[in-house]
Amino acid sequence: MNLHSLFRRKKISDIEAEQAESSSLHKILGVRDLTFLGVAAIIGAGIFSTIGRAAYEGGPSVSLLFIFVATACIFTALCYAQFASMISISGSAYTYTYASLGEIFAWIIGWALLLEYAVSNMVVAIAWSEYFTTFLAGFGIHWPAWLEIDYSSAREAYEQIQAGDFGDYVPESVSKAAHTYNTAPELGGIKILFDLPAGLITLLITFIVYIGIKESKNLSNWLVILKLGVIILVIIAGAFFVKPENWSPFMPNGIGGVMGGVAAVFFAFIGFDSISTTAEEAKNPQKDLPKAMIYCLIICTLLYVILSLILTGMVNYKELRVDDPLAYVFGKVGMNFIAGIISISAVISITSTLLVYQIGQPRIWMSMSRDGLLGKRFSKINTKYKTPGFSTILTGIIVGIPAMFLDMQFVVDLTSVGTFFAFILVCSGTLYLDQKGETKKAKFKIPYINGQFIIGISFLAGLYFLLFQTNYQKIIQEKPLVLIFWMVWLGLSITALKYKFSLLPSMGILFNLYLMTELGWSNWYMFIIWLVIGLTIYFLYGYRKSKLNNKV
């Protein structure tokens, strides 16, 4: 093994040759289908569930956080779009990084994306379960409480109440969870608690994805139309119950409270990148993929900002620490009919998000397998249904079982670090290929704005604000990871002077890195553990079996 071989790149010409041979998948997706897949992925558990947790942290000002995170995503989406117009093959950021920064980074990103997609779907499955049981309760059918919650959430709620952590005001969701823990059946002295609906819906969606992309596309399109209709209904109906006094104070917990919702808000935007995993099933991927990514981000950002203001205007932000905030706020104002519609629609529409991620993850495995980094079974296409059968089934198992036993907040936090890392490397890969002159043939080109001086000047302005306008010592003590951000910004400023870096990809790197430093240590610990496991597999298997191994 030598150091150079770790950074061996897959030539774009070789990828283009693979594209010509990749006829085993059905090419049926148009720009509308791709946009709807993006909307289906982005507007799911984020808008029906995690938006409540973000609002609880930041209050009404969480709407600003949605804009901030959307900005980072738009810079990143432009980089994805340029890559997609050059490399129209399944694999998303994994394939793009392989063609730019080299194999070791491609493996890391592929491994991180497996975590992102699997964990994201766990959150979606858990959120689906919450709305499903609420929906059943509306018809007088009460699902056993011990079969709709994970053990750790129920136990934590019970211990918090016993310790008096909430004082006089105990959120209804916490009280219910504690009661469930106290009354749950036991086996050998251990409480039996797991989220059965989350496992069942994962099983159903895995079956649909397994039998074909056409069936998946048709279902996704109908579910997205329904989803958008419900959200528009919520916005219109909710506007009549907005009380402006609920928006004051607009930033009750300061900037720290706003940024405390980064993981939840960023999770709400994850999904636009999943469009690129279906490149081989798109009719005209080089033109349609870039359009779809931009369209779905614009649509979803507008809806998120408006909806967050409606929710925090209808009730006090302190009441939004629930897994079904949309249904909760309408029940709170006495509009149980609307709450019922939301619960029914959420059950149906969150399913579309689950569907998109279950489509995406097997196709990343398929791409890694084609390159020799994973076993051949991962890329085997079912001859009848034209889908990666083994990878699809394995995805269902990996998502469905943990979804029944893990806490939603833990899972939301876990998914963000790897995704930020993937986004940063895609933006970095764009800069690298620009310097190599390999983006000239791209059918979608990021507008070039010379960042030679702008990046450095903005660094000096930001440093001045940090040192002279804020208590920087406190910031560094509370969030020491921010030092990494400032060091990278300095390095980027220096290299931009020499290489005249394009501004937009550079901003994508900085925005994503800053948001990444806002995440807690627990996110980083879990990501590092996941990364160590992945690198171990790579050096024991992937490095030796790589198809590029004999070409270096």
How much of the polypeptide forms β-strand, as a percent range? under 5%
User: Which parts are unreliable, with pLDDT below 50 for 5 consecutive residues or more?
Assistant: none
Please tell me the CATH architecture by its name: Up-down Bundle
CATH C-level name: Mainly Alpha
Kindly report the average pLDDT value: 83
Read across the widest sheet, the strand sequence of neighbours is 1-2
**Structural class by secondary-structure content:** mainly alpha
| Overall tally of domains | 1
Order of helices and strands: HHHHHHHHHEEHHHHHHHHHHHHHH
Task: Annotate the secondary structure layout.
Elements: H1 3-6, H2 12-21, H3 31-42, H4 45-58, H5 62-86, H6 93-98, H7 103-138, H8 151-163, H9 172-183, E1 186-187, E2 190-191, H10 196-211, H11 213-239, H12 254-259, H13 262-269, H14 285-314, H15 325-332, H16 336-370, H17 389-403, H18 408-436, H19 454-469, H20 472-478, H21 482-499, H22 503-517, H23 521-545
Antiparallel strand pairs: 1-2
Helix pairs in contact: 3-11, 3-14, 3-16, 4-7, 4-13, 4-14, 5-13, 5-14, 5-18, 5-22, 7-10, 7-16, 7-17, 7-18, 7-23, 8-9, 10-16, 10-17, 11-14, 11-16, 13-18, 15-16, 16-17, 18-22, 18-23, 19-21, 21-22
Walk me through the structure.
It is a single chain. The protein has 552 residues and is mainly α. The protein has one domain (3-137, 198-449, 502-545): Amino acid/polyamine transporter I, CATH 1.20.1740.10. It contains 23 helices and two strands. Strands 1-2 form a two-stranded antiparallel ribbon. The termini are close together. The relative contact order is 0.18. The mean pLDDT is 83.
